[in-house]
Amino acid sequence: MGNIKLAVAGAAGRMGRAIARVLHETDGVEVAGGLEAKGSPFIGRDMGELAGLGNIGISIGDDPLALLTKVDGIIDFTTPETSVFLSELAAQARIVHVVGTTGFSAEQERAFEAAARHARIVKAGNMSLGVNLLVALTRKVAALLGEEFDIEVVEMHHRHKVDAPSGTALMLGRAAAEGRGVALEEKAVWCREGHTGPRPDGAIGFATLRGGTVVGDHTVIFAGPEERIELAHKAGSREIFARGAVKAAIWAQEKKPGLYSMLDVLGLADL
């Protein structure tokens, strides 16, 4: 069997370049193409040169339909609209679609469920091993501790991030809610301002910080009577997300069509 051919959506962005580097250094896979929006100044540029690898003979294009018919999968850290569109094309091509994009609406989430009837979609708000272990531990700790422990999710990202809370913070909040056997939408406190009154029992609070070049810091706080437990993860570079995404694309090659998460990829779904 030959190498697994993987394309990169958003190939000229910071994540796209990181993914190209990881693909280039990973045995059994190859950089098979890159995508950017029509009119991008990066169309025609060599992916290797942009990623600091030197010329690899693979240029960035703007025709997703043509590209997806020639590859085994696509790794996608773009925008919600682009990711949904690519999921439809991945379903038509019966290939793997790894989605690291965040900020989807409920309607867009349903579109992924529909596409997963034919595509193998791995979708996660965070692709790193450490964060997904944190998600599994958060669910477990929330299940073990009673409501006398208040739950707060604190996250910080670079100043250019456009969605809040982060997809990872939402993953952590949902994990805590699952551990408690409740719906996050019913228990979430997204922000606080002014005279808020006492903290509601069972609430899951979120705090969002933005600034500088922070790749991604997340902490789940369980604050109880006279003691506090904190589970934390700090990302040092985008390479950890790229490595996780490539791992997911390889893992999904032999799976049936469906919608998977990184917890499935890493075998942490039942932790």
What features would you describe in this structure?
The chain is α/β, with parallel strands linked by helices and about 270 residues long. It has ten helices and twelve strands. The protein has helices at about 15-25, 45-50, 65-70, 80-95, 105-115, 130-145, 165-180, 185, 240-250, 260-265, and strands at about 5-10, 30-35, 60, 75, 95-100, 120-125, 150-155, 190, 205-210, 215-225, 225-235, 260. The chain has a seven-stranded parallel beta sheet with strand order 3-2-1-4-5-6-12, sandwiched between helices. Strands 8-9-7-10-11 form a five-stranded mixed beta sheet. A hairpin with a 2-residue loop joins strand 10 (about 215-225) and strand 11. Helix 1 (about 15-25) packs across helix 9, helix 4 (about 80-95) runs parallel beside helix 5 and helix 6 (about 130-145) packs parallel to helix 7 (about 165-180). The chain is elongated. It starts with a strand and ends in a 5-residue tail after the last helix.
Outline type: elongated
The number of helical elements comes to: 10
Mean pLDDT: 94
In N-to-C order, the SSE pattern is EHEHEHEHEHEHEHHEEEEHEH
The total of beta strands comes to 12
- Spans of at least 5 consecutive residues whose pLDDT stays below 50 are none
**Which sheet architecture does the biggest sheet show?**
7 strands, parallel
Structural class: alpha/beta
Cα separation of the termini = 34 Å
Radius of gyration from the CA trace?
Answer: 19 Å
Into which percentage range does the β-strand content fall?
A: 15-25%
Enumerate the strands of the largest sheet in spatial order, edge to edge or round the barrel: 3-2-1-4-5-6-12
Helix content: 25-40%
